[in-house]
Amino acid sequence: MTSTSIVKAEGETSVSDVNTQQLSTQAQSNIIDITISAAGDCTLGYDVNFGYINSFNDEFFKQNKDYTYFFKNVKDIFSKDDLTIVNFEGTLTNETKMANKKFRFKGLPEFTNILKAGSIEAVNLANNHTYDYLVKGYKDTINYLGKSGIIYFGREHRRIVEIKGIKVGLLGYEGWSNTKALRNRIKSDIKYLKSKGAKLVIVSFHWGEERKYFANAIQKGLARFTIDSGADLILGHHPHVIQGIENYKGKMIIYSLGNFCFGGNKNPQDKDTFIFKQTFKFKDGKLIDNKNYEIIPCSVSSVTNRNNYQPTPLKDKDAKRVLDRIKSYSR
Length: 331
Hints:
Largest sheet: 8 strands, mixed
Order of helices and strands: EEEHHEHEHEEEHEHEEEEEEEH
Shape: globular
Radius of gyration: 18 Å
Helix content: 10-25%
Strand order of the largest sheet: 1-2-7-8-9-10-12-11
């Protein structure tokens, strides 16, 4: 992001209030461009049952605790936008009591420095690993993120970020089923953020089926309903592989961004991923154009024989291969 100024304007968010954080002190001019970058699942840590050798934490210490290592190859992309968003899949805690489930991810509290070093400003917390270390782990995570200045949103946290004088709303949900209750909540939350002045609303969904390359009916139904309810961009994740992109009524739906900096798998078979960038143009505070977007093909690792947790842009034939895959899944 181009500005490093983050100022809390209100108290902690809850279901009934909203926290506005200011990412730029630039005075609002007649025409303003806001560029958003988004990437997929980021697990800064590992599952203790997977073993420590070659884990995310092992790599961290092999790199002499270099916080810049993990996002080094994409930092140049993220530092040039106005807001970078990822799905934060896991916890940051010293808690040892864990949920009774198959996969449980935990990272060190200091890993917030990895996000900051990578110019990642905002993380979604609405996913199936939020409570891997129970309520204590969740509370610790939001505490450490908040103290570091990382914007967290999703679940009960409805967020407004002010960028160049424009208020941007952030919402996140687990979208396992297209229920009336969830639709009502989405519609109500978007209406609420707009009542607080949000001119752009971005919604992050954790949904879909793992290792499925095509979005299912639930994903499509929820995404289109959310845009019909006033959202401007949908960011999807959970399948751990990439899925297609849909232009619905002039608004972009990214069904799955795939993995990104993912400590949940030491060597995923499918390492393809991408960064989605979109620029929104405002005139006199009103959104007038959103047609400028870019897909940046990446690998979750800078090496092919394992996951070294260092997402890296792809070039030439590999980049074309990923773009062709996305086009295929988008038909």
